[in-house]
Design a protein that fits this description.
The complex is a heterodimer of chains A (about 220) and B (about 450).
Chain A lengths: L1 E5 L3 H13 L3 E5 L2 H10 L4 E5 L7 H10 L6 E5 L4 H10 L3 E4 L4 H15 L7 E2 L3 E4 L4 E4 L2 E4 L2 H12 L4 E2 L1 H8 L8 H14 L5 E4 L3 E4 L4
Chain B lengths: L3 H50 E3 L5 E3 L15 E7 L2 E4 L18 E7 L5 E11 L2 E10 L1 H36 L1 H15 L14 H45 L5 H26 L10 E2 H15 L6 E5 L5 E2 L3 H18 L3 E9 L2 E8 L6 H12 L10 H12 L3 E6 L6 E8 L8
Parallel strand pairs in B: 9-11
Antiparallel strand pairs in B: 1-2, 3-4, 3-7, 5-6, 6-7, 8-10, 11-12, 12-14, 13-14
Helix pairs in contact in B: 1-2, 4-5, 6-7, 7-9, 8-9
Classes of the chains: A alpha/beta (about 220), B alpha+beta (about 450).
Chain lengths: ~220, ~450
């Protein structure tokens, strides 16, 4: 899961990045509206945390532009003013959730998880499939009654698979959603992580489609 | 303050009447004078004519040649008379019959004209000349009846007065129209001011006469300055909030993350941070209430309420809550959008918080007021607490942050708009009911 955090307070932004990475997300950050809009247009983010009071271009305008161009990733807006007018305008512009400053980081992390799950039709609780239940808080997965610990990348990868069951996912797509902008994006590394997941869980959990990519949970 | 229209109307009417009266007077006098001059010339001629017929016989008796006596002098009381005197001899026209004209002494010099009452009370004008001929003095007086002239003059005066009166009435009507027409820009501006108050326009049209132009320009300038100042102060508040709340979020996070060190100072810091957060929150909310509507602002219920309800649905999406809206078509109200959204947002938020399955917003317009009712099907509020609830909102600075602040803000906003909020139990849904009455300045809420 890859996130974009747009916040012009550099210290707050860095802390948010840290907290969200800790929660198992690949995070890109930017401090102004123009760059944010550009990043949102070019990168396949799974969710965006967008501050409204931004230099160069207001957050609301950035959001409107994304929606006008058909960008549908879920967006949580952050605002300092917390007025109903801002809430109404934010939702009208296409926001999915709203958080007023000051907020607790736990609240933000929970809401980011919630909008991503909601986007994938998992309205409440954790992400689960027939025999797997992902614990996002502890970054573990329950499988056949066992709790298996996952590394950060393994967790991100498995979460992305579990949110897209039965869909062919290319190595490129997986790389884009599992790593942030600054990471070394060698798509071959993905193979290593997929092998590890298969070892930890069951080899049949992830299928390889030669020349196309991988499919999660589909018996072929 | 007297009306300009009345003032102009009355003073113009008075001056018109004065001018017409003066004109009538001057024309009448001049005409009479001219007519009399004509008479005098005629009588002068008659005198000359009589003079040529005068002679003295050998006995020194005064004689007048009969062929010099015009027929009018022969007909009794014809209105034309003469009297010729020389020494103690007198010749009178036959028309005088048994009457006489006043004797003028031959010592009188030159030409003499006088008005007198003649036979049969005829108003006469008499013209007299004294001649010296063959060593004798001859006094010739000729008199003419003025009755026909007087009659003609009277008729002229009446006709002239009538025409003048008609012209006066016409002019008065014309000037009344002109005054009204000339003042029409004032009415237009007044109508625009009303529109401004209703929020239909945001500035006055500057296409006004030169006299009004500075006033309208100043007014527009004031409006712009006011709008700008409010926008700026809100902007400043937003910036301040933004500048403070970022670090505050971070600080709270860092204190919570700080696992080393004693728990007591950490708790104390958390408490202080919490207090700071509430202080900022409260002051922001208090300061942002703008009061009455900004010029040119209009809150369109039909356009805004669905968006607000969608927002609430999104915020309470995890709750199986139906938020319904009952509203007549085309309700708009001169109010600031932010204020109205804050008022309704807080009331609806409260209802959504407590409601179990349904929340209802009713909008009703009655002549001079807009009534908003927010119902929910929650537990409601015990009657005993309703009074406390109403009180809490009256003093915003004493209210506990978080709890009841929303209602307090709603109450403050309503009172800033000259309205009020009452609380009770909803008869429709059985839960809490908040009723807001907002008076509409000038006219109804429908537009």
């Amino acid at each position: 899961m890859r996130l974009l955090v747009v916040e012009d307070d550099a210290a707050l932004c860095a802390s948010l990045e840290q907290a969200l990475e800790h929660a198992g997300y690949a995070v890109d950050i930017t401090g102004n509206g123009e760059d944010a809009e550009h990043l949102g247009d070019s990168e396949p983010y799974d969710a965006v945390v967008l501050d409204l009071g931004l230099p160069r271009r207001p957050g609301l305008e950035v959001l409107k532009h994304w929606r006008a161009r058909g960008k549908t990733m879920p967006v949580i807006i952050l605002t300092a003013r917390d007025t109903w007018q801002e809430k109404v305008d934010g939702f009208k512009a296409g926001a999915d959730d709203y958080l007023a400053k000051p907020f607790h980081f736990e609240e933000l992390v929970a809401r980011v998880g919630a909008i991503i799950r909601r986007r994938h039709g998992e309205p409440s609780g954790g992400i689960r499939t027939a025999d797997l239940a992902l614990d996002e808080e502890h970054q573990t997965v329950a499988y056949n009654g066992k709790t298996i610990a996952l590394t950060g990348t393994e967790f991100r990868l498995l979460r992305y698979f579990m949110l897209h069951p039965g869909k062919i996912l290319s190595k490129t797509e997986l790389t884009q959603h599992v790593y942030d902008f600054d990471s070394d994006r060698d798509s071959n590394v993905i193979e290593v992580y997929i092998r590890r997941l298969r070892e930890k869980l069951d080899p049949g959990v992830i299928h390889t489609r030669r020349g196309q990519g991988y499919v999660f949970g589909a018996k072929s | 303050m007297r009306s300009i229209q009345k003032y102009l109307g009355v003073s113009l009417a008075v001056s018109l009447v004065a001018v017409f009266f003066l004109q009538w007077l001057v024309v009448s006098v001049t005409l009479r004078h001219l007519s009399e001059s004509g008479f005098k010339a005629h009588m002068e001629h008659n005198i000359e004519n009589l003079l040529t017929g005068i002679s003295f016989d050998t006995a020194g008796r005064l004689q007048l040649a009969p062929d010099r006596i015009e027929t009018v002098y022969r007909r009794p009381f014809s209105g034309s008379y003469y009297r010729i005197a020389s020494g103690d001899q007198t010749l009178r026209s036959r028309s005088l019959w048994d009457r006489d004209l006043p004797a003028i002494p031959d010592t009188a010099g030159g030409i003499l004209t006088q008005h007198l009452t003649g036979p049969q009370s005829q108003p006469l004008i008499m013209h007299t000349r004294v001649f010296e001929w063959q060593g004798r003095r001859i006094v010739i007086s000729v008199a003419e009846d003025l009755t026909p002239l007087e009659a003609e003059m009277r008729e002229f005066r009446n006709r002239y007065a009538l025409v003048s009166l008609a012209a006066l009435v016409l002019l008065l009507a014309l000037q009344a129209w002109l005054v009204r027409h000339g003042l029409r820009p004032l009415h237009r501006t007044r109508a625009e001011l009303r529109q401004l108050e209703q929020g239909e326009v945001s500035r006055l049209s500057e296409a006004v006469p030169a006299e009004l132009s500075p006033l309208v320009r100043e007014l527009n300038h004031l409006l712009a300055a006011m709008t700008q100042r409010l926008a700026r102060s809100r902007q400043a508040l937003g910036n301040l909030a933004h500048a403070l709340k970022g670090p505050l979020t971070l600080l709270t996070h860092q204190v919570e993350e700080e696992k080393s060190g004693a728990a007591a100072p950490r708790r104390a810091m958390t408490e202080q941070l919490q207090t700071m957060k509430h202080l900022i929150e409260r002051e922001l909310k208090r300061a942002r209430l703008s009061g009455a509507a900004l010029p040119g602002r209009r809150f369109d219920f039909a356009a805004e309420l669905p968006a607000l309800i969608e927002t609430l649905k999104a915020l309470y999406r995890d709750k199986p809550l139906a938020i319904n809206l009952r509203m007549p078509a085309g309700v708009a109200f001169p109010a600031d959008r932010e204020d109205m959204l804050e008022l309704l947002g807080n009331l609806l938020d409260n209802a959504c918080k407590w409601g179990r399955r349904e929340v209802l917003l009713e909008v009703a317009v009655t002549g001079s007021a807009v009534t908003l009712r927010v119902h929910d099907d929650g537990p409601g509020c015990p009657d005993a607490s309703l009074a406390t609830l109403a009180q809490r909102g009256t003093r915003l600075d004493e209210s506990t942050p978080g709890q009841g602040l929303g209602l307090a803000i709603a109450m403050q906003t309503a009172s800033d708009y000259g309205g009020r909020i009452s609380f009770g139990r909803s008869e429709i849904l059985g839960g809490f009911l908040a009723t807001v009455h907002l008076p509409v300045a000038n006219g109804d809420g429908n537009a």
